[in-house]
Amino acid sequence: MEKICFSPIGVIHSQFTEAKGIPRQSVGAQHLQAEIEIFDEFAEGLADLDGFSHIVVVFNLHRVEHPSLTACPPWDGRKHGVFATRSPHRPNPIGISTVKLEEISGSTLTISGVDMADGSPVLDIKPYVPDLNPAGDIRLGWLEDKIDGMNMSKSGDR
């Protein structure tokens, strides 16, 4: 299969200049804000986004140096296949975070619920629409009995 290449549409500006201290998930970082700078050639694509309270940000985990096919999540003491985890150390280091859209000013988005490193290339933005996501009988696999006790602490606290 041919290699797939993406060009960033923007960049994240956050307080996290190193991996230590980045929240593990955006749900554990509701009080943290950052900005997404959308490059000029993509600014027109922001039309009508201001009516949404939350957005899904797809970004490159550009600081991941050691991809792996297994991961040992902090919520469980054993290894799992990386595709059964939310580990950033993946063959294709793509991050997906649902964040609150606080404001749009020109081509700059202010967001909260940030779990992204400063300088992360943004690949796409989509409005979050709860009714378009699955509901009902959702299975959580190995996380089923761990989800209530999950610690959303920062990555350096592992």
How is this structure best summarized?
The chain is an all-beta fold and 158 residues long. Helices cover 0% and strands 28% of the residues. The strands form two sheets. It has a six-stranded antiparallel barrel with strand order 1-2-7-6-3-8. It has a two-stranded antiparallel ribbon with strand order 4-5.
- SSE order in H/E notation? EEEEEEEE
- Mean of the pLDDT scores? 86
Low-pLDDT parts are: none
In CATH, what is the homologous superfamily? YaeB-like
The separation of the N and C termini measures 37 Å
State Rg. Answer: 16 Å
Major sheet? 6 strands, antiparallel, barrel
The number of distinct helices, counting runs of at least 4 residues, comes to 0
Helical proportion?
A: under 10%
Number of strands: 8
CATH topology: Elongation Factor Tu (Ef-tu), domain 3
Main sheet: strand order: 1-2-7-6-3-8
Strand content: 25-35%
Helix/strand-derived category reads mainly beta
Number of separate domains: 1
What's the CATH C level? Mainly Beta
- Characterize the overall form: globular
